[in-house]
Amino acid sequence: MGEGKTGSQKRDQMRSQTGGIFVGGGGEGYAAAQELLLKFGNRHGLIAGATGTGKSVTLQILAEGLSDAGVPVFLADVKGDLAGLALSGSETFKLHEAFTKRAETIGYTDYHYRAFPVTFWDLYGDQGHPIRTTVSEMGPLMLSRMLDLSEAQEGAMNIAFRLSDEEQLPLLDLKDLQALLVFIGENADDISLRYGNVEKATIGAIQRKLLVLENQGATKLFGEPALELSDLMRTDPDGRGRINILAADKLMNSPKLYATFLLWLLSELFEELPEVGNPDKPKLVFFFDEAHLLFDDSPKVLIDKVEQVARLIRSKGVGVYFITQNPADVPEDILGQLGNRVQHALRAFTGKDRRELKQAAENYRDNPRFSIEDAIKEVGTGEAVTSFLEDKGVPGVAERTLIRPPASHLGAITPDQREAVIAASPIAGKYDTVVDRDSAYERLQARAKAAADEAEKAAAAEAPSGSAAQLDEAFNSARRYNPRAGGASSGASKRISSSRASRSDSIGTAFAKSFARQLGSRSGQALVRGILGSLFKAR
User: Fold this and answer.
1) Please, are residues 91 and 69 in contact by the beta-carbon 8 Å criterion?
2) Neighbours of 337 (CB within 10 A)
3) Please, which residues have CB within 8 angstroms of residue 521's CB and are 6 or more apart in sequence?
4) Are 285 and 314 contacting, i.e. CB atoms less than 8 angstroms apart?
5) I need a surface site. Which of 68, 193, 222, 411 has the fewest CB within 10 A?
6) Sheet order of strands, 383-387 included
7) What is the DSSP string of 53-69?
8) What is the C-alpha radius of gyration for the chain, rounded to an integer number of angstroms?
């Protein structure tokens, strides 16, 4: 078994590019090839099974097959063992003999070791290229779910995004959002007249949750340069699709952040990609590991939107594959759209387990040769009950399948090996340096300074006879523009003396002008967000 691009590898790629991906052997003696047809690769899929039954290896060999077919892949590496896709398997590996024997059993004559083109990503920037989005692109719906906001708090978040659009205050990173929320809290009375009641306590509660998010390291998720989706859809010069691996071992400590980020990415793909109808092969295949995190405690409206996107995104050429322990983790309406299925063993220790096992078996097309329910209980590690879409998109008969062995390295890689892959990446250096351009935080700071300067000039013009009460009034007027309490205008507080007459550019006047403009052309400039996006989106 060589590690270069052999004649058998070329034949393997040719078969993948023209027809299907060999997944394993089924039927009597495991002699019948079980294939995922590329033309149905965007009809979504499910990989399920208890811990330790081989789900990760199935995901690995599907990623290999799709890459050989020229299809880019995005997947999350929850345990750190999928990084082995970047390295070739080896004849010195402890399972080499077992893998060779399995390949012979299933008739996989082209089995050979090789590495695959991999791009490593990491929200924290430690184990891969930094991956960022802006607060504006994430939107209030996603942020509210990530922060687990109440209905009132979500309403305040929507007000912040609307105000951002109307007042030209771009929300790029967390400090922009925090600054705008302070601004809303300071001007709650005026803002409530336009948008509805906003309580300072509500703003404070959101700020506390943002602080928790900040402490979890989410500040690195928000900012620029933001991810370009085209970088997830690259192919190598040899025609193989790149496998994008998100380091998720650390990210799993914040499960809601993990699930919300992947859901946002899926929604961005839906919004940005053009319609392609029924392509010969997918444009991208997206694997959503630990899928139960997406649906746990999610409101029905969000689940309905996920179901709608899953139904529609296939026309964009994107296949979505959910990986979870039990099919029951996936809502019924979404489960019904997953045409390609690999079911590893389920354990049935309790009454609930037995009911879920029976339900899982009912999702397959019956095979008269065996009981599907019994097969799901009995299959060993590396074996599964499979069903792939056949001609005309009809579900295939369930088969007890021995999954083919991987060609790439099975297991984790060393930090030095990872660094070498990152350094050789076609996007090396593109996202390394954070860009902090003019946005809401900077513009609110500028307003604070301008208001403070204006109040100071007015105080100087009125002579030194101003009372302490007048001085406080002028300072408060300036402070209302400050994105952080006690910020830019605090240094001038002891020098300001003013009266109400000096507040010609108060927040009420500013908003009155803003609303008049908004009723004209500004409202027509707002971009309506897509199905999983938020109210407005500033690019």
Assistant:
1) no
2) 16
3) none
4) no
5) 193
6) 32-37, 20-26, 399-403, 383-387, 340-343, 45-48, 318-324, 284-289, 73-77, 243-247, 118-122, 129-130
7) SSHHHHHHHHHHHHHHT
8) 28
Identify the pLDDT of residue 259: 87
The confidence score (pLDDT) of residue 463 equals 54
- CB of 287 within 8 A of CB of 321? yes
Contact 76, 258 (CB under 8 A): yes
Cα–Cα dist 266/313, whole Å: 9
State both tokens at 425.
Answer: 């990446």
DSSP E strands: which ranges in 163-303? 243-247, 284-289
How confident is the model over 84-122, as pLDDT tens digits?
A: 999 999 999 999 999 999 999 999 998 999 999 999 999
Sequence-distant (≥ 6) Cβ neighbours of residue 92 within 8 angstroms: none
Q: Which residues of the chain have pLDDT under 50?
A: 1-11, 13-18, 484-539
pTM surpassing 0.90? Answer: no
CA geometry: angle 140, 145, 151, nearest 5 deg: 75
Return the structure tokens found at 136.
Answer: 């504006």
- The reported pLDDT for the residue numbered 309 is 87
With left for phi above 0 and alpha for psi between -120 and 50, is residue 132 left, alpha or beta?
beta
Would you state the pLDDT for residue 216? 80
Quote the CA–CA distance of 378 and 265 in Å, as a whole number.
37
**Count of CA atoms in the C-beta half-sphere (13 A) of 414:** 3
The type of residue at 238 is D
CA dihedral angle for residue 263, residue 115, residue 81, residue 430, rounded to 10 degrees: -50
CA dist 334 and 310 (Å) reads 7
Q: Which of 257, 238, 88 is nearest to 246 (CA)?
A: 257
